[in-house]
């Protein structure tokens, strides 16, 4: 009788053995160069998810019918990104080892690297679909290679040219944009071209990483580095639904919510709705 | 000489006997399931209305020329919704009895039920035009029938099938959407279809209820349950102008501003401008 | 391997069967007459408890060594206080039935009544130690008997004269202060007289209820009805330690944190530290 | 039946002809050198006054029994301090002409000069009791003589040496402190010496001006220029009660609340309680 | 070795003798009728500019390659608008005298008048392109001619009919809109018609003034008088790029950011990006 | 003529060659385990310092007469604490090499280690006076030795037993308090015992490090880990004045202001006043 109620992401309380997708949080921000606080993102998302319904009128599906389990947050070490990434990789490895799909909630974008390492180890032909305002392709940031501004460059080092498809990119150094032309596929400013990319990728395994700052700051102000002129919620919702339902997504993440810069709570609501729509669109594995 | 200046909604200081529309506030929130605070909505709207002009370049009309009177806020009892609804109904009854149009400012959406009861008593063939993000059609909410999540269901019990026209609905349980198909007219996601509905209603008496969360949270973050992917301000402004100028609106309300979740004040400015445009569009009775 | 980490109040993860004290939250506010939001209190307390250490240098004790279990929050119905109180009473009944001490975290002060009813049923000679800025002794509030402004009056109806000892009271109607003179023991303004009261009560069973607004608003701004000139944190810490270690506390609560009025987070930190010191001082049952 | 409820300061709704004290607000800030926003002070005070009780357990008196009337706010011109001061002086003149006591709520401290001019015209032997963190004795501020940093200097020009008694002063230029030694009585840092000053003033007419930033910023953060190490609420409450009950206060003001720097609302609560205690202590004229 | 790093607007650290455009800030707000705080605008813009990149993917240009110098903020007198305008005019005069283009960052919109006076003295055939939500064409505001609500009227007095082209205007009194028809070219609601105006102006000298509240409040909430239904960021970015690259802009300003009403920081990010795009588009003189 | 005004800490604009004390900022937080944001501390302190006067009535001294120079902020790398500490150490080395006293403004408390390393290299018999709420004596934090929770332990490794005097400590693990007994002098809870420590230290060189969270959170809420029941502002002001005027302070720092958790700005005002009093008390070297 004296048992504790579930307090993970709404309705994601299926038995982990029967779930096809496993949520876990990486409450880590340490390399963020501008405004910190994404460490609070995953906890805020869980708590505020109860402001949404489990049912989506867009997809006519309900999370209650979806085999997802939320394992809560990892305990991560600040000030030592390498150690934190190892812990994230371990958790993703464990999930993949059981034949399930890891769904990581950040945290700063660097956390992607941990889950990505696990995924690329299991799926050597891994492709990347990347939604973001920022290219994240720097060689290093003020001397540090493990920075959220470098994360896709680190991923590229593991998969090489032609595997990474970026969308919505509207900020970067001149060098990043130039480098990108030779190594990755970068769609600037919006999410157009997604259909073409999905066709090109086919049924290859995909790591799908969503930096929520791809959204316009009016829609999603609660992030470390808001960049005006982003995509609309509607565009993002349709695009994530498309990727999750059509690509062979073997691992994914949603990151860069910084709830302390979100006094109205709307950014957290946006993050929850994006995650709900992704979870509803992801097929069983 | 020592007299108190007017501090109601800007320019709504006509003599109540000569006004065709009477504003009053219902500073009540008690059943809100998520974030409370709409009790502060009507007071914030009055105070911030002075940041707007009384003149509308959209309609080329001026509130100074409009016969409206603001009676201020009721004093309502928290924790006892039935008692609060009775007080709201009494005030609306009194206004209707003098042949005037009550314009209620919430407060949570449940307050609609008080004014609606008064209106349906006077106008048995009352129809409803309902703008909202949420269907509000639950039979009960955690066992309570008097909840803001059930308010349109309670209204339906008083008028029956075919009288309620909902627009902008993008959140609800699967059950609500299914129930709606048999009993009310629900336009999902946007305000399209309004012209058709107005034609169908003709000159029947209309209760017009605007839950401001029909707006996108980027436009209107200050509400209890922000739901992404709402309508734009421009769409709402045009729609409320259309309803107020074309339908036979016998009573109306605007609700669900929660100003403590609006640190920038823009939600309150939005509420004020919606109300100004409605007041300018409503004809004399 | 894929198991969820504990996310209750820090270190309160003992097996409920071996715990002597059981924490649970009542995230309820519906009757609050002024600023709402205590519904978010218990969740904020859990989340922010990790900013504190488990060790207290005041008592030289550690929560790691203390047999406490946190069961998380009840799911309560808004807008129907009677129903919510029943659910709280049921949970407290269950805890008391297993010979353990319920420790309720509010929520508005009305939640006390639920746990109190359970306690008085088991301990008919129950006494009350009440720390608060407000007397909470109204017969009703705007017609409603179940209001946070009436909660001690409702408790008095169950135990009668001479059982309630109030401290720190600095706000109330003239009628409340007059009524109090004949029925309860009210120490105005501060916590003086506590030793005398503890001696008078002896080893009788005690319900200890702490409305955190007894603190000065400079120390604890995050509450619905801040009342200037309250007690210092040091005075409160010493007083709660004294009550918990010397009285026969059979049930207790801490309430009225409203974290959305606490943008700096210090009120939540204060609530966490008060609870830590109480838990460390409460003896095994 | 359709009448507007009172919305001035709680319980200050007596007929102005029968009131001995007349509240009015001067929502003006234009010369503030640091953080603006005191223009919102008087409106916030009225609105939040309902969070307090009308009864004071300190004085065992009730505002319901007190003959005070609140006339609301003046409409003042920004950017032209001379014009705004004229309007304030006119209102104070009118109140004094009816044999009543003006009680001005600011606004920035410069507003004092308007009411002071009216009072000194009627009472040429006017004395000043001034509570403040800042000396406000500059000859000019960046070239402007009408600045909140100069207001007491402007008052001194109207009454001369020996009439102004300052308390709590802990900030100023070296020149202000030196000048003060020859012209006014300045008690630095706290409110000590008040009894002596009251005795010296005897029954001479007194203008009592309270800049709320005399309080410590922990108690009263919501002000333009917070200055650490101020007086406690308890000290201020006792001091204002003493001045109002013992001196011949012919006019008074409370100013410098800037509610937009008061997200918790405690500064406004403090301002309300100070005003309540002053109103209860002021005798009929 | 012990030298201070640059802390002006990012990358605007060229030697002033070699710069073609000179930034300076006018941290002044004193006449603002509604919410103050634009005095903090220019400092916030400098500090937050480091959250942007110096490179623009829209124009494929980099601020590092642009000859701009930021001179920091003037020290201005509050409460005396005439004196503040003189100081702004002096600084703009000095910049123009050296053959450079002044780029003023406000502050409230009244600051425009200072720089405008300098520009019109040097360029008698000066034209004005004005982006704003508000017409700013009042003869006076509550009796004061030097108000931010009158600034374009004051400019008109210096250049006469046919020289001022307004865009985005959606708020004003009926009188302002009527007066405008005879004296200025007013494009209501959006930025359409800009191409036509640029063609009409040809290579005449242009003062370009951007009141950022022309943007929709969802994009730019941090301003004194938010007016719903403004233009999108994309529309504004394209329009300012067009004006700066095609018109003969001899002086310009960006104003009305009030960062204390911008808790998320997105308004400041928007202001920074507008300024970056303008600086990149402005040709050498 | 076109020169940039000073924008460092008020009045600290002396020529670095003639200054005895050199301010510099280390805007770094990367290892903070709880709430981040101290990276914004030094910039906020500079900007808000203009809300204070340069003159102190406590010491009757003026910063205008004090030979201090502010060099602004270092540019530091996030996510790599070792690299950031090296940069801080280099700056402190350079200042010490010129015979001046470095005064570091944090940032998180870990920054102390950079300046401390420079100081201990020059002064091998360096002693430490440490004001803090937290012992900061952990061997490591979640595996990382370079954490703000370990900084005094790292300092101890460089100087050994008997050199560190801690005051105000009220939080730590049981292990930290036990370890401290054998290695450092820890005064719990308040600043008592300072006189004795100063006598024991005599004229030995002292590194003085002030973690502002030693203050009570009511006085200083804007910090990462607020810990209730701290010292008063008055106690801290007197203590820092005593240390700076009596000990042989060769280097010092003030840290842990996190301004984004300080919406009222009072924490920043407190930090500014502490720094002003320290600068006024520090003698020429």
Low-confidence stretches of chain A: none
| CATH architecture classification of chain A | 3-Layer(aba) Sandwich
Structural class designation of chain A: alpha/beta
Give the averaged pLDDT of chain A, no decimals.
95
Oligomeric state of this protein: homohexamer
Major beta sheet summary of chain A: 8 strands, parallel
Q: What's the end-to-end separation of chain A, in Å?
A: 35 Å
* Tally of separate domains of chain A: 1
What fraction of the residues of chain A are assigned to beta strands by DSSP? 15-25%
Question: Do you know the CATH topology of chain A?
Answer: Arginase, Chain A
User: Which pair of chains forms the biggest interface, and how many residues does each contribute?
Assistant: B-C, 26 and 26 residues
Give the full name of the CATH homologous superfamily of chain A. Ureohydrolase domain
- Please report the first level of CATH classification, the CATH class of chain A: Alpha Beta
Number of extended strands of chain A? 10
Shape of chain A: globular
State Rg of chain A.
17 Å
Helix share bin of chain A: 25-40%
SSE series of chain A: EHEEEHEHEHEHEHEHEH
Please work out how many helical segments of chain A DSSP would assign: 8
Spatially, the strands of the biggest sheet of chain A line up as 4-1-5-10-9-6-7-8
